[in-house]
Each structure stands twice: as structure tokens, then as C-alpha cells.
Design brief:
- By secondary structure, this protein is of the alpha/beta class.
- The longest helix has 53 residues.
């Protein structure tokens, strides 16, 4: 029950409707309980006494009771459905809002399939409980209590005899609940794993097909689907074993009522009308007990799902705005326009899931306003961490990252990220029009602004060739566009924001050399007047940078221009010779022999 209490904050705003629902439920219940009573009076006062007027009177009252019960039941069902829909909508909105503010580190430990399973399957379990389980539990409980009181009033001896088998049903229900809890928890967890496999396979369908691994993908899904079936079969077996016992006890109660009632009718201590009323009322006793098994199953589904949902709601938002400080605010200190100065001051960083393994170790360097700096380094050198710390996708574990002398942790997140345009290596586009994808960071952009940004990123030509131009809808994740086209759309999206700081993370890795040259010419104009940070693979991009920072083991190994670093003969020279010297030698040989230079893009620098 402690898990169910977590729903109260979402239910409480609708307490007025719940009060009305309770009132309607009571009226409906009264109508239902009056039906057997009027039926018994029609038998005893009308048929037994051959009084047709009494029969007509009680038949009319019985019809009126049935109308009250039916109308009340309709209104009750409608109200509980509306309240449940509102509660679930609010809960789902709260979960979705929470997901927007959770840090990147949280997503690294939570598979997308698990998130989808919780937002859909687990929410359905909660909705079913709120819509039907909770209100049914209350109304059926009230039905049992009131019916029991009425039966005691009619004939307490027959009542006790009829209820004698009920302890057997109570034992069956308790045993059922103890077993169904872990069964439903296992079902929910396995559904999350199955959804994860499904999501990964759909997202990685190109890779699966490229390596002809369809049999492996099917086998992997079959394994998880078989486990999902096994968990559901285990749960079904428990339900199948519990419900027949309840049915047997229900039938036993009728046998007892028939046997005891027959004896009482024969000896004249029980009227026929009361016996018929008992026959009707007994369902109002047996059904609430009988339905308890179903209600327990519904409730335990919700109880198994709520902790999975609250794992999202209660996840810590480690990246958040700092508390306001006295004096000049960070917002006031960040009001200047123009290029920004970026500084890493003795920065250390380790990922939250591996705090013992630092990625950056006392990293110190600065980028002057308007400067273009290329970040270079081998695998694990910390390049990605550098560009992730500036917009606070992660927070430093030591030292400071500053913009214009202000610690990024003291700048409101919305304002901080509005100053930064990012073009990631792995481009993501939404299932929307080309125009909406470009204007995602600035939805109020004018048509001229969108087109200007598109031209800078070399998007305009292929956009106008599409069936509906900029209004052409792009498929999921940009399906329908080439890798180069997707990266150019992402570049246009960043350019449109007119950021003070532009971060390019392998932004031209998926375009051919000719297109890259065109984009580089456009970027030269775009980067003028703003601070630019480039993580690049191709030497041509680094050569155009004002400064190159070479990272090794989370520190600055060396920094300078292309020529300065080659003259040092250090880490940059080693990487340069490793990736490029051999290719340039081949190109010179081709030129000496009168051949043509290859048109393939230059090899990638090591990460």
C-alpha cells in the first residue's frame, strides 16, 4: 500500500470529482441493494397474499431501483474513466518533463527500451488500477458490508451459514497475493528487456542489414520474447490456480444456502420472499469476494509498476541552475554580445558511473574571443569531455569551466545553452519538415533566416530539389536524407541560433571532400565574430584553425598552430605522420608520374 500512496499527489487535485463519484456510487449502490428487497416484498406481500396491487407497487419500485442503479452506474463509470485519464495524463506529463531535465549520465545507465516500457506498459497498469481497480475495490467493499448488514437483518442464522465457507476463499486470496507480487514484478522487468531489444534492433536496422545479421537479431528477440512468455505463463498459472478455488467456494455457499434454506422453508421459519431475496443478495456477498482475486491482480500490477515509474520521477537532476547569489547575477554578467572567452582552469572530470577513472586531469587552456581552436587527440584523450563540459552536459569534478570569466555552473542552463551552437557527430533529425528541423533551436525564425542558415550549410540546393521544398517531411531520424545531408541540416540548425560559441564535433565527417570545401568556405564567414571549437578528423580543418590543442591522457600535451606543432616534433607530429605522411607521399608520387589525385576523402585522424 505504501507504493499506492505515491499516487495521492496526482489524485488529490481531482478530489472534487472523486467526492461526486463517491456520491453517485452510493446512490447507485442503494438502488442495487433495494432491488432484492422489493423483489422479496413482492413475493411475500403480493404473491403470497394474492394482492395484485402490492405486486404492481413493488414491481414499479423494483424498476425504479433498477433505473437508479443503471443510471448511477453509467455516471460512475464515466466519472472514474475521466478521473483516471486526468491522473494518468498528469503523471505521464510529469514523467516526460522529468526526462527532459535528467542529465546525460542518467541515460547511459537506462536503456531507451526500458524508458519506453515504463512510459507505456507500466503506465497502462497504473491507469487500469486508477480507472477500475481503486473505485471497484471501494464500491465492492461497501457492497459487501452493506449486504452483510441487510442479510443479518433479514435472517442472521441463514447469513452465518451461507458465509461459513468464506474463510476458505480468504485463505486462497492471501496465498494468491503473496505469489502474484513477484510474478508481476518479473513480468514488468522482462517487458522492459524485450522493449529494449526491439528498440535497439529498429534503431540499428541499417547495421543489422549491412552485416546480414538478421538471423542473429531474430534469435536475440526470440530469446527475450520466450522469456517474456515464460514470465506471463508463470503469472497465468498462478491466476488459473487461484480463481477456480474461489469459484468452488462461491458454489459451496449456494449449496449451503439451498440446503439450510430448504429446511427453514419446510419448517415455516423462513418466508419464500426472504429466501428469494437471499438468493439475489448472496451475489452481492459472493461477487465482491470473488472479484477480490481480480482486484488483487490489478493492484499488484500497479504496485509492481509504480517503483519503476518513480525511479524516473525521483532520479536526481544533477545538472541544474545554481542558487541565486548576492551581487551581480551571472545573467547580468553574461549580457554582453559578441564572441566569448572560454577557459578551462585546472579541470578534472570523471564519468559519474566510473568516478575512479578520471578522463581529464588538471586540464588548463583558454580560447580567446573570436578564436577558432581545433581539439585533437587519440582515443580516450578527453576530446568529447571537453566539448560536453562547456554546455554542462556533464559537470566538472574539479576545477572550473568559464565563459567570460563566469563559471558555467553559475549561468542559468537556458541562457548558457542559448549562447552555444552544437553540431554533433551523430546527427539526429526529428520526424518533421525540413524547415522545422532547421528552426528547432529558434522556432520563431523567419523564412529569410531559415533560408540564410540553409545556404551557409549548403542545404538550400538540395532542399529546393525536394518534392515540397522546405516543407518536405523528413522520415524518422532523417531517413530519406544521406549522411552528408543530415549533417548539413544539423549545421544549419546551429547556424540559425547565431551562437556566441560554435562547437563542431566531427561536423563534416559524413560529407565528401568537395562538399566539405564548400562548407568550410561558408563556415569561415560564419565563424568570424564568434568563438569556435572544432573536433575534427581531417587535416584541412585543423590547418584553418587559429590554434590546435593536442590532448593526451586528459591533459594538454601541446598547443599551437599547425606549423608550430610540426616543428615541435611531438604528439601532433606523431599523429600527423601516422595518418597523413604516407598518403601525401602517394599523392606526390602520382603527380610525379603524371597521374590524377584520388578523389576519396582524406583519412581520419585517430580519436
Amino acid at each position: 500500500m505504501n507504493e499506492l500512496k505515491k499516487l495521492l499527489p496526482f489524485v488529490w487535485p481531482y478530489r472534487g470529482r472523486l467526492a461526486l463519484l463517491a456520491l453517485v456510487a452510493i446512490v447507485s449502490l442503494v438502488g442495487m441493494l433495494l432491488e432484492p428487497y422489493f423483489f422479496g416484498l413482492a413475493v411475500d406481500q403480493g404473491i403470497a397474499k394474492q394482492n395484485m396491487e402490492a405486486v404492481i407497487l413493488y414491481c414499479g419500485l423494483l424498476i425504479g431501483s433498477a433505473i437508479v442503479f443503471s443510471a448511477g452506474n453509467y455516471i460512475k463509470s464515466l466519472l472514474q474513466g475521466i478521473v483516471a485519464a486526468d491522473v494518468v495524463r498528469d503523471l505521464r506529463n510529469a514523467l516526460y518533463r522529468k526526462l527532459q531535465y535528467l542529465p546525460f549520465s542518467w541515460y547511459t545507465s537506462m536503456p531507451t527500451g526500458q524508458i519506453m516500457s515504463r512510459m507505456l506498459s507500466d503506465m497502462d497498469a497504473v491507469e487500469q488500477f486508477v480507472a477500475w481497480g481503486f473505485t471497484t475495490m471501494l464500491t465492492e467493499g461497501a457492497t459487501f458490508v452493506l449486504t452483510f448488514v441487510i442479510l443479518l437483518t433479514l435472517d442472521w442464522q441463514l447469513t452465518l451459514a451461507v458465509l461459513a465457507p468464506m474463510p476458505l476463499m480468504a485463505i486462497a486470496i492471501v496465498r494468491f497475493r503473496l505469489k502474484i507480487d513477484p510474478a508481476w514484478a518479473a513480468v514488468r522487468e522482462q517487458m522492459g528487456r524485450l522493449t529494449t531489444v526491439l528498440q535497439e534492433n529498429i534503431a540499428g536496422v541499417r547495421v543489422v542489414k549491412a552485416f546480414a545479421r538478421e538471423p542473429y537479431a531474430m534469435r536475440r528477440f526470440d530469446e527475450q520474447n520466450a522469456l517474456n512468455r515464460a514470465r506471463n505463463v508463470d503469472r497465468t498459472r498462478l491466476e488459473a490456480g487461484a480463481f477456480p478455488m474461489m469459484d468452488f467456494v462461491s458454489g459451496l455457499s449456494f449449496v449451503v444456502m439451498l440446503a439450510v434454506g430448504a429446511v427453514r422453508l419446510i419448517d415455516g421459519s423462513l418466508s419464500l420472499g426472504v429466501f428469494f431475496s437471499f438468493t439475489w443478495y448472496i451475489w452481492s456477498i459472493i461477487w465482491p469476494v470473488r472479484i477480490t482475486g481480480w482486484l488483487v491482480s490489478i493492484m499488484r500490477q500497479a504496485v509492481a509498476s509504480i517503483p519503476r515509474l518513480w525511479a524516473i520521477l525521483q532520479a536526481e537532476e544533477t545538472i541544474r541552475d545554481a542558487a541565486p547569489q548576492a551581487g551581480a547575477s551571472a545573467e547580468q554578467r553574461q549580457s554582453a554580445a559578441g564572441p566569448a572567452r572560454v577557459e578551462f582552469d585546472n579541470v578534472t572530470f570523471a564519468f559519474p558511473d566510473d568516478p575512479a577513472t578520471p578522463v581529464l586531469n588538471g586540464l588548463t587552456f583558454s580560447i580567446e574571443p573570436g578564436q577558432t581552436v581545433a581539439i585533437l587527440g587519440g582515443t580516450g584523450s578527453g576530446k568529447s569531455s571537453v566539448i560536453n563540459l562547456i554546455p554542462r552536459f556533464y559537470d566538472v569534478t574539479g576545477g572550473r569551466v568559464m565563459i567570460d570569466g563566469v563559471d558555467v555552473r553559475d549561468i542559468p542552463l537556458k541562457q548558457l545553452r542559448a549562447q552555444i551552437g552544437i553540431v554533433p557527430q551523430e546527427t539526429f533529425l526529428f520526424s518533421a519538415s525540413l524547415r522545422e528541423n532547421i528552426a528547432f533551436g529558434k522556432p520563431d525564425a523567419t523564412e529569410d533566416e531559415v533560408i540564410a542558415a540553409a545556404r551557409v550549410a549548403q542545404v538550400d540546393d538540395f532542399a529546393r530539389a525536394m518534392p515540397k521544398g522546405y516543407d518536405t517531411r523528413i522520415g524518422e531520424r532523417g531517413i530519406g536524407l544521406s549522411g552528408g545531408q543530415r549533417q548539413r541540416v544539423a549545421l544549419a540548425r546551429a547556424v540559425l541560433m547565431n551562437p556566441r560559441i560554435l562547437i563542431l564535433d566531427e561536423a563534416t565527417s559524413a560529407v565528401d571532400t568537395a562538399t566539405e570545401d564548400a562548407i568550410q568556405l561558408a563556415l569561415a564567414e560564419v565563424m568570424r565574430g564568434r568563438t569556435s571549437i572544432i573536433v575534427a578528423q581531417r587535416l584541412s580543418t585543423m590547418k584553418n584553425a587559429d590554434r590546435i590543442v593536442v590532448l593526451k591522457d586528459g591533459r594538454v600535451a601541446e598547443a599551437g598552430t599547425h606549423e608550430e606543432l610540426l616543428a615541435l616534433g611531438g604528439e601532433y607530429t606523431r599523429l600527423y605522420e601516422l595518418q597523413y605522411r604516407e598518403q601525401e607521399a602517394r599523392r606526390r608520387d602520382l603527380l610525379d608520374e603524371g597521374g590524377e589525385l584520388p578523389v576519396a576523402p582524406e583519412p581520419a585522424m585517430a580519436h
